[in-house]
């Protein structure tokens, strides 16, 4: 018998996240093989009168494609994926990686071709900019291991997170969005961190279960050239199969002028992908009450309660500072006391201390008020 939580998740994705309508075309793209959820999504799409299409991808096959690729080859792949994406109304990606390091030894120049030629054209410029979309993971043994949990415990955690009442969370987000909309100066302090920038005029976006599952953040972008100071990211991160720890940036006039980590050379290779990859495209505050610790999966880690992320690379067109890049790398700092604490200030007013919101109008986003 199918787990009823899968059907509940499929219903939320189709009816709430995408608000899929009769006659609309939906692309379901599954990397890995999660037939239970894919079948449930197909049935739910048909139930609302939509037209579902399914693509199944395998991580090891993708690795072989990327290893041998060229500009000409990737342009050919991008041509067909772009035409299909352009024809869709909505998109769901289910990604369940058995090995998060599967792509770690694909040469960086090959991954750069994929990022510039296919991902930017198909996803950054078309899917993210023009479609309704939602991206999620699916519980497997690899994710359970990264979370230091048994598979059964991780599955329970996963469905608690993904089937959260996001409509309730959305209402609690509104005061933070409105505050960010009218804020000019931001200062963030914490261990090895003293960061200053402006978000004036950019605008803020609520992430309330309509783009990513799990969800739970409000994001904007810094004025591109306004970032000054240093930041230390205390959450490990994985980019294209390579894991980094102890990432630290120094900024001058918006640009990352110094970058170090557990793998400083690989870090700087990524930041040198293009001109925009050394500037910041997103600043976001995370507060999902169920997600407390990093697990090397950014869809979860960027939503950690008491965290924020500060993202080198491309800005979203709905909160746009003009930065363009084939890179968009969400890097996370957690500010709860067990991670060293920290403060976020808006226009010289303290809004969050040690991971907890301190302004009365924002207290609805503290964990006890969201579960």
UniProtKB/TrEMBL annotation:
Pfam families: Peptidase_M29. GO terms for molecular function: aminopeptidase activity; metal ion binding; metallopeptidase activity. The keyword Metal-binding applies. InterPro entries: M29_Exopeptidase (IPR052170), M29_N-terminal (IPR035097), Peptidase_M29 (IPR000787). The keyword Mitochondrion does not apply. Its cofactor is Co(2+); Zn(2+); Mg(2+). Keywords: Aminopeptidase, Hydrolase, Metal-binding, Metalloprotease, Protease. GO terms for biological process: proteolysis. Belongs to the peptidase M29 family. This is Aminopeptidase.
């Amino acid at each position: 018998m199918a787990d009823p939580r899968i059907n509940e998740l499929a219903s939320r994705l189709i009816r709430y996240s995408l608000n899929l309508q009769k006659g609309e075309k939906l692309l379901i793209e599954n990397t890995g093989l999660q037939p239970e959820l894919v079948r449930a999504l197909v049935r739910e799409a048909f139930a609302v009168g939509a037209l579902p299409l399914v693509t199944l991808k395998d991580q090891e096959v993708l690795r072989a494609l990327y290893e041998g690729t060229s500009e000409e080859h990737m342009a050919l792949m991008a041509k067909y994926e772009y035409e299909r994406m352009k024809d869709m109304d909505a998109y769901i990606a289910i990604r369940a990686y058995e090995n998060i390091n599967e792509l770690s030894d694909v040469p960086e120049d090959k991954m750069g071709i994929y990022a510039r030629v296919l991902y930017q054209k198909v996803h950054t410029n078309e899917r993210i900019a023009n479609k309704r979309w939602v991206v999620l993971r699916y519980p497997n043994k690899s994710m359970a291991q990264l979370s230091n949990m048994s598979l059964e415990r991780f599955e329970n955690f996963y469905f608690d997170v993904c089937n959260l009442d996001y409509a309730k969370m959305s209402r609690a987000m509104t005061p933070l969005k409105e505050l960010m909309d009218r804020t000019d100066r931001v200062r963030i302090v914490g261990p090895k961190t003293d960061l200053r920038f402006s978000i004036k005029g950019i605008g803020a976006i609520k992430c309330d279960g309509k783009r990513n599952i799990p969800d739970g953040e409000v994001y904007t972008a810094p004025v591109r050239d306004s970032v000054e100071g240093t930041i230390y990211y205390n959450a490990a991160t994985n980019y294209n199969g390579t894991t980094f720890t102890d990432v630290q940036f120094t900024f001058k006039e918006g640009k990352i002028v110094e970058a170090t980590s557990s793998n400083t050379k690989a870090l700087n290779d990524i930041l040198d992908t293009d001109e925009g990859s050394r500037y910041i495209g997103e600043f976001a505050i995370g507060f999902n009450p169920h997600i407390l610790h990093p697990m090397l999966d950014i869809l979860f880690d960027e939503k950690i309660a008491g965290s924020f992320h500060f993202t080198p690379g491309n800005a979203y067109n709905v909160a746009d500072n003009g930065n363009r890049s084939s890179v968009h790398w969400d890097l996370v700092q957690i500010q709860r006391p067990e991670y060293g604490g920290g403060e976020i200030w808006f226009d010289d007013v303290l809004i969050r201390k040690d991971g907890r919101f301190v302004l009365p109008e924002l207290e609805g986003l503290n964990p006890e008020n969201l579960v």
